[in-house]
Amino acid sequence: MEYLITFPSSHLSILAEQLLLARNLKPRIMPLPPAIKAGCGLCLRIDQCDLTAATTILDHGGATPQEVYRIQKSDKNPIYIKE
Amino acid sequence: MIYLDNSSTTIQKPPEVAQIMSQSLDTLGNPARSFHAPALEGARTLLQCRQAIATLTQCPSPMSIAFTSGATESLNLVISSLISNDDHVITTVLEHNSVFRPLYLTGCALSILNCDKNGQLKIDELPTLLTPKTRFLVATHGSNLTGFIPPEEEIYSFCKKNNIIFILDVSQTLGSIPVYANMADILCFTGHKGLMGPQGTGGIICQNPLRFSLVKTGGAGSDTFARHQSLTFPDIFEVGTPNIHGLAGLKASVSFINRVGINVIQDEESDNFALLLSKLTEMKQVILYGSNHPQPQLPILAFRFENYSSDQVAFALWDRYQIATRAGFHCAPLLHKHFQTTDCGLVRLSLGYYTKKSDVIDTVTAISELIKQGV
Q1: Which of A44, B173, B180, B204 is the most buried (most CB within 10 A)?
Q2: Is A39 exposed, middle or buried (0-12, 13-18, 19+ CB in 10 A)?
């Protein structure tokens, strides 16, 4: 399962990516899905197993997430469920 | 050519600045607008530039740095965003027009701290300028005409004591001497002088959130359906496509400074300046302005010859010796009025990291010859 992490600004999304890569996590920067209103134009996609570690790293690194969504696959567009 | 106009802009830069800018033209996309590799590489470059400046200024968060086109835009944005015609503001006689003119535009009440005959600010007079409506103090961290460095620590302490927001113009100091993010509430900087980056770059450093009002608006790559963009710093001042190729160059130049060390740069410039000052002080025909005070001092020196206007001297230095200086009034109207040099102007010599000792010796020789032969 994967999660989407949103940020209040795209600068923070990039900082978040840098912080997570430095700790050997593997985030992917994604365009923010139109279904999600909260956040800037970029968000991070991350594996469930890394989510707890990622949010801790981001909190300490000054890139606190705005919101976290669980990605639920469906026939067409994924469904994003706010955590 | 001997280039002694570094206070206007540095043209001798670390070689990697041009290399990286050239490469970036083909590789960097629009930062924070898309998620493909060129766009993300642009956004990462932007972050790395913020981090390089944060390192240089010991700023805890790179997000306390907003990019602009230069110090003039930074000062305009900050002043117009914070100051209204209902405020009283203190500034100093040393300022550049990039401080005076935005302040005049706000319609605020203004008090100007004067200086003595040597161009040193009369800091003791600061309390006499206070009014119940004093909310801001805007000051330079180093005179662009005389190189005088005001005691910013004393000024900031006065501001804190009186609940005044301190806006510091570090155009002439950042990259030449140690400058720290906590020296003032807001620092306005340019990228193309001491930082040795490209023109068209600069920024604002603000560690503690202030109530900035929106003075610039447009596309920001997010919140498309909102009528207004984000009010948070740095986004509030970063609207539209940034000068990413310029900022790639700035990242390279600031990284160079971080590698070399700001103290090494300061020492190098100070040694050459001390030599220049001592030699010109020996020449009775050279009238120096503002250099007759104790250190610290930026490597900037203003002078004139008796009976010659500054343009004549600067032209002769360029025409006969290929020495680049700056004549005239240096956008510092009140200091020239104070020195009573509004008729003749002054010739300014400003040294940089790439100024060599031989440049100083050759300049001294040239000035000496002009004195003997006439301009």
Answers
A1: B204
A2: buried
Q: Name the strand (E) or helix (H) holding B186.
A: strand B186-190
Question: Residue B291's CB: how many other CB atoms inside 10 A?
Answer: 20
Residue written as token pair 């040193």: B120
Q: Say how far apart CA B84 and CA B172 lie, in whole Å.
A: 27
d(CA A83, CA A36): 13
- Whole-model pTM: value is 0.95
Contacts of B251 in chain A (CB under 8 A): none
Among residues B200, B236, B248, B243, which one has the least CA distance to residue B48? B248
Rg of the Cα trace of chain A?
Answer: 12
Rounded-to-integer distance, Cα A69 and Cα A79, Å: 9
Closest approach of chain B CAs to the CA of A21, in angstroms? 12
Q: What is the DSSP letter of B14?
A: -
B49, B63 Cβ separation under 8 angstroms: no
Tokens 């989407």 locate to A4
Closest CA to B219 of B3, B23, B31, B5: B31
H or E segment to which residue B344 belongs: none
Name every residue whose Cβ is closer than 8 Å to that of residue B110 and which is 6 or more positions away in sequence. Answer: B88, B89, B90, B91, B103, B104
Would you tell me how many other CB atoms lie within 10 Å of the CB of residue A26?
Answer: 10
Chain A and chain B share a number of CB contacts under 8 A equal to 56
Q: Mind listing the pLDDT tens digit for each residue in B247-257?
A: 999 999 999 99
B175 and B227 Cβ atoms separated by less than 8 Å: no
**DSSP-derived secondary structure letter, A76:** S
pLDDT tens digits, B306-339: 889 999 999 999 999 999 999 999 999 999 999 9
The residue in chain B having the minimum alpha-carbon distance to the alpha carbon of residue A60 is B61
Residue B350 CB partners (closer than 8 Å, separation 6+): B4, B5, B6, B7, B8, B147, B298, B299, B300, B301, B326
Q: Report ipTM for this prediction.
A: 0.90
Rounded CA gap, B330 and B142, in Å?
A: 14
- Mutation target for B interface from A10, A36, A37, A64: give the one with most B CBs within 10 A: A10
